[in-house]
Each structure stands twice: as C-alpha cells, then as structure tokens.
Amino acid sequence: TSPVVWLRTRFYYLLIRLYFDQEFSIEEFTRGAKQAFSVVSQLLSQRKLDLLDGLVSAEVLQVLKEKISLLSDNHRDALAADIDAIMYTTEGDVRIYYDDDGIKFVSILMRFWYLNGANLPDEVPGETKVFQIVFGDESTKEKRHLLTANYEFQREFTEGAKPDWTITRIEHPRLLE
What is the pTM of this model? Predict the structure, then answer.
C-alpha cells in the first residue's frame, strides 16, 4: 500500500470514530471481515446461496446466483477460503457518503490473499499465472494456489439503522467473472 493511501484510510477511520461510531476499531473490523469472507466464500463454493441472505446485499446475491451456476466444480472449489488459509488481508478503499435523503453510509473494501488446494490449471482464463506453492517432499507434495478476493462491506450509520455490515461487492478475479 502506498503511504498516501495508508494515510487517507487512517484519516477515514478517524472520521468514522469521531462522527459515526466511537467504538470503531480497524483491527476488530478486519477480524470480522476475515471471518465473514471465510464463511461467505465457503457457502459460495457449496452453492448454499440461500444462507447468504442478510450477509450479502440482494443485488449481489442475484448476480452470484447467475455466476455460480456457470462455474466448473474446480473453479467453485477455489472460491472457498478457510480462515486459517488467509495469508494476508489489507484495506482497499474507504468511503463515507450521504445520499439525498440524508442517509449516512460507510463502505470499506477489503482484499484477501488465501491458499486453496483446488485442482486448477496452471494457467487460468485471461492467461494470468496463478501462484502455486508446493508443500512437502517430492513423494507427498501438495499443490496450493495463492488466490485473491475483494469484498466490500457497507454499513448504514443513520440513526435507527441496524448496526450490521453487509457485503455489497464480491470479486474473485479469474474465478468469478
């Protein structure tokens, strides 16, 4: 992450704490986002989309229903991220905005890098190389792919709104396009 982006996101976190939620902690948010990412990605992989209601926005859920049905089993398996297989997490974009009716929203894009043992080809569509990591010796080697995903979390901070974060964007580049 560039120093400018890092400073900008920290400034937004300060604004969130000052104006929306005095208890907000990026560390706590990141822990919750990792857990949500793991649960949602596994449910996507298992095609249990009905269990995503309330976690994922209705618009995103509708798009996912169409995309998941078109995936091969191997690509669908690659969506699943066990929480212990998440290697790195970082914040992307943070946005604070108001709509014309005075409704206040905060949106945080999280980026995840995770290991997955799905049987994927060395080259995925779009001719992008998937990183592979081999564990063990030659006789028992286990191949894992280092994959990425972007999940955007949004919460309404208007007085009286539920204090829940909802996933409003799900991207698994080269897998869920």
Answer: 0.87
